[in-house]
Design goal:
The protein contains 8 helices and 3 strands. Strands 1-2-3 form a 3-stranded mixed sheet. A hairpin with a 2-residue loop joins strand 1 and strand 2. The longest helix is centred in the first third of the chain and has 31 residues. The relative contact order is 0.12.
Length: 301
Amino acid sequence: MKKINLAMKVSAVSIACNLGLSVFKLAAGLIAHSDAMVSDAVHSASDVLSTFAVMIGVSISERKADAEHPYGHERMECVASIVLAVMLAATGLGIGYAGVKKIMGGADTLTVPGGLALAAAVISIVVKEAMYWYTRSAAKKLNSGALMADAWHHRSDALSSVGSFIGILGARLGFPVLDPAAGIVICVFIEKAAIDIFKDACDKMVDKSAPEDLTHDINRVICEQEGVVRVDDVKTRMFGAKLYADVEIAVDGHMMLEDAHAIAENVHHAVEQNFPDVKHCMVHVNPAEEESGNGREEGKN
């Protein structure tokens, strides 16, 4: 519930800022006759739609498990991230296409914008960069891929405004071709961010293992538990923003089943308590006097 509340708060701030910026930049672009600023306004407006996608994705991902979804709904956040990545890529391509079109059109398509557009670009850069760091901080705190994608959407808008600033300034200094050229450069940065977001979301949907250092830390905590003779295997898999761990431990093969079960329970609780991102830890118990025949190594991921 805390995750939803914080995510919704961040999303509400994002929507308010984007709506305000969109209206302001559109007005500035029309008054100052700046095509770059009008395009930038459209980019900000697209962020509103992306933020709604984040709100929906995070809200659904926090639903409790049910009969049809016994493992929960965390992967819906990955779906939201993929949608955002596609929207981000489409926005970047639109900016790049507009830049190429203007350059190919020659001098007839190039205009000299007014000073209001330049001021609007500066304001947009400051606001969107602040929103990037604000959203990024919340995303790291919640380990939310969808919020991180939204943060990069803010950064892409800030880069778009940087390009607008360079283009507008260049046009006013007598180099109007800088406007569309800057847009093409911005397109490359936006596409890189979209690819990174898409890859991260896909990794979380196909059961990619946790980072090796985290697996080693889990192995260390298990070894510290009383009654554990050795760790035969540790497997991890990402499930949205959460993590599942499958562990095999060895205990004294002559102890009572009830005692072996108690050790497994202690390992289960120790892993979940020490690693909040672990949604569930499954523990299998092997008798210590029997060596595994499949070549497993201690702590193998």
